[in-house]
């Protein structure tokens, strides 16, 4: 049966204030000048949703934001990029979060006010919304503390209604990396970066981490930055080399990789081709400041696959 959405994204919703320049902040009321300042779509889930919509998928988003300037900015910006935001919950009692990012090319420092970032609960993702979708994606597992306890049951509900599932944990600020085994057994596609994969598995190499994660989740793709990506699906292994681009800003590159990989996966592509599309999308997204400004179309990305 045809579904209204290819992807339903359940996640955090907050903007990024990106300051670009080769400076170090100094306390003591020392003022430093930066080269540029941009208010952009932020949060892993929202950047992923924009990347998937840019690639031609029909995307819906559910999250919680405040009834404030930053919340309006995010809803309007997501809608402007083709993401359906009708399920976003606007809570007047919440304040929309914000990340202030000092970007220096390939590196960045981040200060985040969480606000409503962690407010979404699993029961707010209704069966009716799931029935409209083919696939459910969740990111920022460790930051979404209200969603996290109910995720295994949410993934079971999704499977019961015919959806596939994917997960990108992102980094664990607490450094604990626990509580994932049950959820990974319910995850059809797991999308960590190399450092996250090593931390979760306590493995000594990306290859070892990939094998251990592959025994838990259905398909695993490990993002390795300048080393490209590795993937496994059962006994099948694959890799994709990195792309050479002039990097302006790496914000959102991993989320845009996820959008590319899942676009291929949902279309039934071979594992190696999914990896190459993910690498192309992630690499091309680094050409301009902000997580969404340089995200490629599918036609553009396929030129590098």
Describe the structure.
With 305 residues, the protein is α/β, with parallel strands linked by helices. The protein has one domain (5-25, 34-302): 3-Layer(aba) Sandwich (UDP-N-acetylmuramoyl-L-alanine:D-glutamate ligase). Helix content is 30%, strand content 25%. The protein has 10 helices and 15 strands. A 9-stranded mixed beta sheet has the order 6-4-1-10-11-12-13-14-15, sandwiched between helices. A 4-stranded mixed beta sheet has the order 3-2-8-9. The protein has a two-stranded parallel sheet with strand order 5-7. Strand 11, helix 5 (181-185) and strand 12 form a beta-alpha-beta unit.
Could you please say which CATH topology applies here? UDP-N-acetylmuramoyl-L-alanine:D-glutamate ligase
> Unreliable segments (pLDDT under 50, ≥5 consecutive)?
none
- What is the number of domains? 1
% residues in beta strands: 15-25%
Which series of helices and strands comes N to C?
Answer: EEEHEEHEEEEHEHEHEHHEEEHHH
| Shape designation | globular
N-C termini distance? 31 Å
Kindly report the average pLDDT value.
Answer: 95
Q: How can the largest sheet be summarized?
A: 9 strands, mixed
Strand order of the largest sheet: 6-4-1-10-11-12-13-14-15
What is the subunit organization of this protein?
A: single chain
So, CATH architecture?
A: 3-Layer(aba) Sandwich
Helix segment tally: 10
Highest-level CATH class:
Alpha Beta
The helix fraction, in percent, is 25-40%
Number of strands: 15
The helix/strand class is: alpha/beta
Q: Look at the structure and name the CATH superfamily.
A: Ribokinase
